[in-house]
């Protein structure tokens, strides 16, 4: 079996991410992993081609971005559209579900960015007590 549940079982299932076999766990990993969250955040700004997205998500390899996009597309968060032109052109954009998830991620990103002075101070205190890592 490919890890999917029959439709009848999915309809009856109460999803609980804290349960080992809950099918929401892989999606949560895709959304909250470093590359997934950055990719969704970048696509929240609008439709992007692969190389535009790769430049926007600084540090991601071509292979990792490709894998991330495939996982997010499979989860229904990203739509991939191949344009019938030469050279080939592929655009990526968020689905309505992806837009909803990205909006919540953007709120978290803004919270973290806005509180970084406190985080940096906490790191300094921690390192002073326990030694720098």
UniProtKB/TrEMBL annotation:
Q: Which InterPro entries match?
A: HTH_HxlR, WH-like_DNA-bd_sf, WH_DNA-bd_sf
Q: Which UniProt keywords apply?
A: DNA-binding, Transcription, Transcription regulation
Fetch the Pfam families from UniProt.
Answer: HxlR
Reply yes or no: does the keyword Nucleotide-binding apply. Answer: no
- UniProt KW Amino-acid biosynthesis keyword: no
The UniProt record lists the HTH hxlR-type domain at: 22-120
Q: Which GO terms describe its molecular function?
A: DNA binding
**Name this protein carries in UniProt:** Transcriptional regulator
């Amino acid at each position: 079996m490919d890890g999917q549940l029959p439709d009848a079982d999915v309809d009856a299932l109460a999803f609980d991410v804290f349960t080992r076999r809950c099918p929401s766990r892989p999606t949560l990993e895709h959304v909250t992993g470093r590359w997934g969250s950055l990719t969704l955040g970048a696509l929240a700004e609008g439709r992007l081609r692969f190389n535009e997205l790769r430049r926007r998500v600084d540090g991601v390899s071509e292979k990792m971005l490709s894998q991330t996009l495939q996982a997010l597309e499979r989860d229904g968060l990203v739509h991939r559209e191949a344009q019938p032109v030469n050279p080939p052109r592929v655009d990526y954009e968020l689905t309505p579900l992806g837009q909803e998830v990205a909006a919540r991620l953007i709120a978290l990103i803004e919270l973290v960015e806005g509180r970084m002075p406190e985080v940096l101070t906490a790191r300094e205190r921690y390192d002073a007590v326990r030694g720098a890592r």
